[in-house]
Structures are given as structure tokens and as C-alpha cells.
Specification:
Blueprint: H1 5-30, H2 38-90
Helix pairs in contact: 1-2
Length: about 90
């Protein structure tokens, strides 16, 4: 894996945790807006829920990107090993 892949993973996890905490706080604070009506309350909590789902989606995209990088590195190493073995066999 690249040199800073674990740092990227940790930063993404910290960002997702902070996003979930802030989203939960916004959602809980917006629950009081249901006293003005259902649609007002629903629009109040939607920002917090959007933040929670967005941070989890971003975490998933970072994990997916890192998995793609790892697969690409493994494929490159396998091709190099295969070509090296083929070169040795032809000698």
C-alpha cells in the first residue's frame, strides 16, 4: 500500500465520527421543531440525517478507493512476477 494509506484511513474515520456526532446533535436539536408541524420538523431533522449519511458515504468511498489502489498494486506485482518467471523460463 502507499505510504500514507493508513493516515488517510484514520483521517476518514475521524471525519466520519465527527460528522455522525454533529449530525446527531443537529437531529436532536431539530426534534423540537416538530411542535410547529410535521413538515417543519421533518425539514429540521433532514439536515442532521443528511450529514450522518453523507459522512458514512464519504467513509465508504475512501475505503473503496483504498481497496482499488491495493488491488491495482497487487495486480501490478502479479504481472511483474509472471513476466519475470516467463523471462527466466525462456532462457
Amino acid at each position: 500500500m502507499p505510504k500514507y494509506s493508513e493516515l488517510v484511513r484514520i483521517i476518514a474515520q475521524i471525519g466520519a465520527v465527527i460528522g455522525c456526532i454533529v449530525g446527531a446533535i443537529i437531529t436532536i436539536a431539530a426534534l423540537a421543531s416538530f411542535q410547529y408541524g410535521f413538515l417543519v420538523g421533518l425539514s429540521g431533522i433532514s439536515g442532521g440525517l443528511y450529514l450522518i449519511f453523507g459522512s458514512l458515504a464519504a467513509l465508504g468511498m475512501v475505503y473503496c478507493f483504498l481497496a482499488l489502489v491495493q488491488a491495482q498494486i497487487e495486480t501490478r506485482n502479479a504481472v511483474i512476477e509472471y513476466l519475470d518467471a516467463a523471462t527466466r523460463a525462456s532462457r
